[in-house]
Specification:
alpha+beta; 2 domains; 25% strand; 7-stranded antiparallel beta sheet; Rieske Iron-sulfur Protein; binds FE2/S2 (inorganic) cluster; binds fe (ii) ion
Length: 395
């Protein structure tokens, strides 16, 4: 259903949304429909993903000429490619001839052209159309008007962000004070040491909520909880569209979050960090879809790409100091295996939640005192819901 201005209407009750916006001890969680309703999902894709900065990945994936990533944001497909000018460029992944997807692979490398697989129109790395077979005699066909459509792009603290609407607030305001943490952990200078993609049968917000609390850690992650006591962290606040907190490595002889108490990798800490940081993990959710976790010796990035109310593609990637990653014998598998296990434990409970949240007998739950960061995340969503619902009343 669309409303008078052609936008998808948001089928939620303002009173239910208002309950999520109360202070933590009085608040109820987001209404169940927010996790299962197709129209809420479409509203979110239009308003939280199309009209906002969305994280597509890390700068190291697109910093070389011709290196590209392709990601889907709702119905739209976006390509970011390293240009001949040394800068990444973002485009809609739709051929200007008959609309085919130009790039099919999620990641890859081309030399100097992006070529449509259908009739071989080809585009330079700045998006301009450079070859279009059998178009020379076509009346009024101006090649310069048929380049790939550019998408607004920003790289902030190593994160590749795009804004499909072209009208989102300045990217620096979106990231806000999170940049201090991204910079301190040198996120822009790290390089990838591994990646795992997941298909999760859960709503994207359920995945972000789960990421924002460790109340479930003793039961769900016995291995993680043995390294870090679930009550050891604190919330971190600051300007920008994000929330987050800390955890501390409380096991006496653990070195980082990894298999064998983190000793298997035996990696030096990220440059510029102090001894105190050796026992700290920071985790942040940059709205709407990036989860960034900072460890003494690596940074982990989850990016969430929702495809349905009950399905999300998750890309998880691990980043290390270049020097560390290029050293002989570099083996990140202790960190990757540890988090792969933890991720799968998380997806399991996210999917359990998804199974229940839309069924008879579930009404919005209450937050415990240990779910302050979940409440922060839900508030980032609920504020946007409420703005739309208020506009509806005013219209
Ligand atoms: S649709 Fe791309 S060349 Fe025809
Ligand atoms: Fe977890």
């Amino acid at each position: 259903m669309v409303n008078g201005n052609g936008k998808v209407a948001l089928p939620l009750d303002p009173e239910d949304v208002g309950r999520a916006l109360r202070p933590l001890e009085y608040a109820s969680m987001l209404p169940p429909a927010a996790f299962v309703d197709q129209q809420v999902f479409e509203w979110e894709m239009q308003n939280l993903f199309h009209d906002s900065w969305v994280c597509l990945g890390h700068i190291s994936q697109v910093e070389k000429q011709g290196k590209f990533i392709r990601r889907e944001i709702g119905p739209d497909s976006v390509v970011v490619v390293g240009g001949e000018d040394g800068q990444p460029h973002a485009f809609l992944n739709v051929c200007r001839h008959r609309g085919a997807r130009v790039i099919e692979e999620a990641d890859g490398q081309v030399k100097r052209r992006l070529q449509c697989p259908y009739h071989a129109w080809s585009y330079a790395l700045d998006g301009s159309l450079v070859a279009a077979p059998h178009m020379d005699d076509v009346e009024d066909f101006d090649r310069s008007c048929y380049g790939l459509i550019p998408v607004r792009l920003a790289t902030v603290g190593g994160l590749v962000l795009v804004d499909l609407s072209g009208e989102a607030p300045e990217p620096d305001d979106h990231v806000g004070e999170l940049i201090e943490h991204l910079d301190r952990y040198r996120t822009a200078d790290l390089v990838s040491g591994g990646r795992i993609d997941y298909e999760v049968d859960a709503n994207w917000k359920g995945i972000a909520e789960n990421y924002n609390e460790c109340l479930h850690c003793p039961g769900v992650h016995p291995e993680l909880n043995a390294l870090s006591d679930y009550m050891s962290g604190e919330e971190i606040a600051g300007a920008g569209s994000w929330c987050g907190g800390s955890m501390f490595i409380t096991a006496e002889n653990a070195a980082t979050m990894g298999k064998e108490g983190g000793h298997a990798g035996n990696r030096p800490r990220i440059e510029g960090l102090s001894e105190e940081d050796d026992r700290t993990i920071l985790y942040f959710a940059l709205f709407p879809n990036a989860l960034v976790s900072m460890h003494p010796d690596y940074v982990m990035l989850h990016t969430l790409f929702p495809t349905a109310p009950d399905h999300t593609e998750v890309i998880c990637e691990w980043f290390f100091e270049r020097k560390t990653a290029e050293a002989e014998g570099f083996d990140p598998s202790d960190a990757i295996d540890f988090w792969d296990q933890t991720n799968r434990q998380d997806w399991y409970v996210c999917e359990l939640t998804q199974k229940g949240v839309g069924t008879t007998g579930y009404t919005a739950g209450r937050y415990s005192g240990e779910e302050g960061t979940v409440h922060e995340f839900d508030n980032l969503v609920a504020v946007r819901y409420m703005e739309a619902l208020n506009e509806r009343v005013e219209a």
